[in-house]
Design goal:
With 375 residues, the chain is of the alpha/beta class. 29% of the residues lie in helices and 14% in strands.
Length: 375
C-alpha cells in the first residue's frame, strides 16, 4: 500500500521515499541536479506555464551564471539542440546552453559509427535531415525529398494542398544527394523517425515501401532495414487544451499496417523517456554541468564524470507513464515530481505510476527542491 500525506498549506502530495530516492540529511549545496520536461511543465506550445521563467531564474546567481545544475529532458525534437537552446533562452529569459538540452533524438548520435557513411532516411516535423547531418551522418535525406523522386509513390499527393521544403541543400555536413539515378537505385540502410511525422499517410506508405523491400521501393527483399524512433509517447501536452497523439501513436499505426502486409512483424528500436538509458545520459550531463555550472565554456572537454556524482537527481514531468515511470526504472538517485499542468491533472497521485511528489506547478516543484536541499 502507498501512503499519501497532505501538505498543510498546499495541494501537494509526497510519497514516503523509496530507499533509492532518500536524501542524506547532510546533503550539501550543489549535491543535486534537476531534469525538466518541457511540454506541459515549462511550456504549453510556446507559452511559459506554471511561472516557469521565475522558477528557472532561481537556479542562477545574480550575475546570470548557472548556480544549480539543470537540463531539459524531453522527447520532443525536430531541430538541433543548439537551436532549441536559443529558443528556450528567448522564451524563458535565461541563458540555456546546448548541453542543457537533451531531445528525443539526441541518442541517435550513438549510432554514428554504424551509419555515418550509409544512405539513411529521416522523417518528422522540423528539419530531421539537418538534425542527423549535424550529428555527423554524411548521407542522409529527408523522407519528404526521398519520396519526391518516386513518381506516384503517394497516390493522394495531388489532393494535398500544403508544400514541404527539401532539406538536403541546407544540411551542413551531409553530402549532396540529388541524383535521381542514385535515389532510384540505392538501398536505404536505415530509417529514423526523428520527430512527430506531419503526413502520417504518406510516411506510413513510404516507410512500408522501404521496410518491406529491403531498402529500395519496388523490389522484393525480406530483409528489413533497421528502424529507429526518437520516442514512443502515446500522448503529450501541446498548445491545445487536451493531449495530442504523439510518436508512439504513429508507431502503433505504422506497426499495425506493416504487420498486415508483411509476413514478419515490424522490428524497431525506440529511444526517449522512459528508457533508463536516457536517464543515465542525463545523469552524466548533470555531472558535467555541476563542475561547470558557473562557466559558459564547453562542458564536454576534459571532465572526469565519476568524480562529480550527484546525490539526488530530480525529474520534474507531467506524464506518469513517461517521466515518472522512467525515473522509477532508472532508480537511485532519481526522485520524481509530477506537476498538474500537462497530461496529469488528477487531485491524487497517479495509481499505477505514483510520483515521489505531486505539485501544481513547476514553480512549486523548484521551491520544494530548494527548501529540501537547503539551497
Amino acid at each position: 500500500m502507498r501512503f499519501r500525506f497532505r501538505q498543510p498549506v498546499s495541494t501537494c502530495f509526497i510519497r514516503p521515499p523509496r530507499a533509492s530516492a532518500a536524501l542524506n540529511s547532510t546533503s550539501t549545496r550543489n549535491s543535486f541536479g534537476i531534469a525538466f520536461d518541457i511540454d506541459g511543465v515549462i511550456l504549453r506550445g510556446k507559452n511559459p506555464i506554471g511561472n516557469s521563467p521565475r522558477a528557472l531564474k532561481r537556479l542562477y546567481d545574480d550575475s546570470g551564471a548557472l548556480k544549480i545544475p539543470f537540463l531539459f529532458l524531453t522527447n520532443g525534437g525536430g531541430i538541433p539542440e543548439s537551436r532549441r537552446a536559443l529558443e528556450l533562452s528567448d522564451l524563458l529569459g535565461v541563458k540555456i546552453l546546448p548541453s542543457q538540452v537533451l531531445l528525443g533524438h539526441s541518442p541517435f548520435r550513438n549510432l554514428l559509427n554504424r551509419f555515418e557513411n550509409e544512405f539513411i532516411v529521416a522523417t518528422g516535423k522540423g528539419e530531421p535531415a539537418v538534425v542527423m547531418s549535424e550529428y555527423g551522418f554524411k548521407r542522409v535525406v529527408s523522407l519528404d525529398e526521398y519520396a519526391s523522386y518516386f513518381d506516384n509513390i503517394d497516390p493522394v499527393a495531388q489532393y494535398k494542398r500544403w508544400t514541404t521544403k527539401h532539406e538536403s541543400e541546407c544540411a551542413r555536413n551531409s553530402e549532396k544527394i540529388v541524383s535521381s539515378s542514385y535515389m532510384l537505385s540505392t538501398k536505404v540502410k536505415a530509417a529514423f523517425v526523428v520527430s512527430d511525422p506531419v503526413d502520417w499517410g504518406r510516411d506510413i506508405q513510404v516507410l512500408c515501401d522501404i521496410l518491406t523491400s529491403g531498402g529500395l521501393p519496388g523490389q522484393q527483399n525480406e530483409h528489413q532495414p533497421p528502424l529507429y524512433f526518437a520516442a514512443d509517447d502515446l500522448e503529450y501536452q501541446a498548445a491545445f487544451p487536451h493531449e495530442r497523439l504523439g510518436m508512439g501513436a504513429f508507431r502503433i499505426a505504422l506497426e499495425n499496417v506493416f504487420n498486415r502486409i508483411h509476413e514478419k512483424p515490424l522490428q524497431y528500436t525506440s529511444f526517449g523517456k522512459p528508457n533508463p538509458s536516457v536517464y543515465r545520459h542525463a545523469e552524466m550531463m548533470l555531472g558535467y554541468l555541476l563542475q561547470f555550472s558557473s562557466s559558459s565554456n564547453d562542458v564536454m572537454k576534459n571532465v572526469d564524470v565519476g568524480s562529480h556524482s550527484l546525490k539526488t537527481l530530480y525529474m520534474i514531468g507531467d506524464n506518469p507513464l513517461v517521466d515518472v515511470k522512467g525515473a522509477v526504472q532508472a532508480g537511485h538517485p532519481w526522485f520524481s515530481i509530477l506537476t498538474r499542468t500537462g497530461v496529469f491533472r488528477q487531485k491524487e497521485n497517479h495509481t499505477s505510476h505514483p510520483a515521489d511528489m505531486v505539485v501544481d506547478t513547476v514553480e512549486e516543484a523548484v521551491d520544494f527542491i530548494l527548501k529540501r536541499e537547503n539551497a
